[in-house]
Specification:
- The chain has 418 residues and is of the alpha/beta class.
- It has 2 domains: 3-53 and 365-416, Roll (Urease, subunit C, domain 1), CATH 2.30.40.10; 57-356, Metal-dependent hydrolases (TIM Barrel), CATH 3.20.20.
- Helix content is 26%, strand content 23%.
- It has 12 helices and 18 strands.
- The protein has helices at 76-85, 104-113, 139-145, 160-170, 184-187, 196-201, 208-225, 237-248, 260-263, 285-297, 332-336, 342-350, and strands at 3-11, 21-27, 30-35, 45-47, 53-56, 58-63, 88-93, 120-125, 149-150, 176-178, 192-193, 205-206, 228-231, 253-258, 302-304, 371-381, 400-410, 413-416.
- The strands form 4 sheets. Strands 1, 2, 3, 4, 5, 16, 17 and 18 form an 8-stranded mixed β-sheet that branches. A 4-stranded parallel β-sheet has the order 6-7-8-9. It has a 4-stranded parallel β-sheet with strand order 10-13-14-15.
- A hairpin with a 2-residue loop joins β17 and β18.
- The relative contact order is 0.16.
Length: 418
């Protein structure tokens, strides 16, 4: 791939061209020159777009694509196209397929389906067989096949001894263990945050305590067993405080937050819109503020769209019976810019890669170009026309967002939105 990118503002603190507007010459996927008013003697395709900005490629640590088994929700092929259109050059795919991804053959299948794409797909293997929490899955074999971590998606590991053994075993091959932060005996059948709003609406509550107990338990287990722990999608102020304290004690722990938990509170459920039924649930304004602050000070390591396509049949039902989850890739950047500055949004969209084995790739001469192209200033109302996923369960539908993604360049391939 040979192209000349014209007048792009580079947002990359790791590059000497950070905050400057430059031309980038890319030959065979590698940056061969950066400068002002570069010539194009070989007649390469030129990319010139309104208010063009470029950064290191964005990273999402939690997406669901459905395939195999739930192709009606989303396929790997269309999921990767959606990721590319949304600005992501690397995504981590969850194991909640049918069958659950819990063997080396399953990992090999997913990698084969995602080969030769601009977006790099990193597969997660289930932590326990069929994500049932009863027996460890084939962790080492999956690691050798290409799994980057192990996670029973949105399924709490209720047996503390199982979590302890997983951490100890994964130490042998530097494996990353993920644990969903929820104590099921406290949550029970809760469908939203337990607070004033849940009482007013007459809906069963999922208290912050359920998350915080599990976070505290897993941090104690990590301290005892050693290993590497990642806690996906925390949602409460106390969880932020617990993880901050654990990091101060040098425990090897990271965490993420779903973008919608930064943008909405539980009051958004007043209309019983099932698109707002997510897990962990939307919390209070105090929690939102603590999550944003935790993201800014580095306690929270990364953001995620927590992209979870769900069939319309599982959303257009009574709130109690609706499935949890929202799609989020398409709205991720625009939503994030409603709560963070552009530079901070880009920072949190590009950090976290190394935790999953991907080293950062600064925009420098001689480096392979792995980048996202965008306009940070475009404002619009997110609608169904902006959705590229097969499923349409979008929490941000009708929201005012800021920022337009032009596309990505990665793996010596380019994807630009029409």
């Amino acid at each position: 791939m040979n192209i000349l990118i014209k007048s792009a503002t580079i947002i990359d603190p790791k590059s000497e061209f950070h905050n400057s507007t430059q031309d980038l010459l890319v030959e065979n996927g590698y940056i061969t020159n950066i400068g002002s008013n570069l010539k194009n003697p070989k007649n390469y395709k030129e990319i010139q777009l309104d208010n063009l900005h470029i950064s290191q490629g964005w990273f999402d640590s939690s997406v669901c694509f459905g395939e195999p088994g739930y192709e009606e929700r989303e396929t790997i092929e269309n999921g990767l196209k959606t990721a590319a259109a949304s600005g992501f050059t690397t995504v981590v795919m969850n194991s909640n397929t049918n069958p659950v991804i819990d063997t080396n053959a399953d990992i090999a299948f997913v990698l084969s389906k995602s080969a030769n794409h601009a977006v790099t797909l990193l597969p997660l293997g289930a932590l326990t067989r069929s994500s049932k929490g009863e027996d460890l899955a084939e962790l080492f074999d999956m690691k050798m096949a290409g799994a980057v971590a192990f996670y029973d998606y949105k399924t709490a590991v209720t047996n503390p001894n199982m979590m302890k053994i997983a951490l100890q075993y994964a130490c042998n091959f530097n494996g990353l263990v993920c644990s969903f932060p929820q104590e099921n005996k406290i949550t029970r059948n809760g469908v939203m945050n337990e607070q004033v709003t849940s009482t007013k609406l007459g809906l069963k509550g999922n208290p912050a305590l359920a998350e915080e107990l599990q976070v505290a338990r897993d941090l104690f287990l990590l301290e005892y067993a050693g290993g590497k722990l990642h806690i996906p999608t925390i949602s409460t102020s106390k969880s932020v405080a617990l993880i901050k304290e654990a990091k101060a004690r040098k425990l090897d722990v990271t965490c993420s937050v779903a973008i919608h938990n930064l943008c909405f509170t539980d009051e958004a459920l007043n209309d019983f819109d099932t698109n707002f039924k997510v897990i962990p649930p939307l919390r209070t304004q105090n929690d939102v503020e603590a999550l944003i602050e935790g993201l800014k000070d580095g306690t929270i390591d990364m953001v995620t769209s927590d992209h979870a396509p769900i069939d319309i049949e599982e959303k257009k039902v009574e709130f109690d019976h609706a499935n949890f989850g929202t799609i989020g890739l398409e709205s991720a950047f625009g939503a994030l810019q409603t709560v963070l500055s552009t530079k901070k949004a880009i920072e949190v969209l590009t950090r976290g890669k190394s935790r999953f084995g991907i080293e950062p790739n600064p925009i420098k001469i001689g480096h392979e170009l792995n980048a996202t192209l965008f306009n940070p200033n475009n404002t619009y109302t997110f609608s169904e026309n902006d959705i590229k996923s097969r499923s349409k369960n979008a929490i941000f539908k009708g929201s005012s967002l800021k920022g337009k993604v032009y596309g990505i360049i990665a793996n010596n391939k380019m994807y630009l939105n029409p």
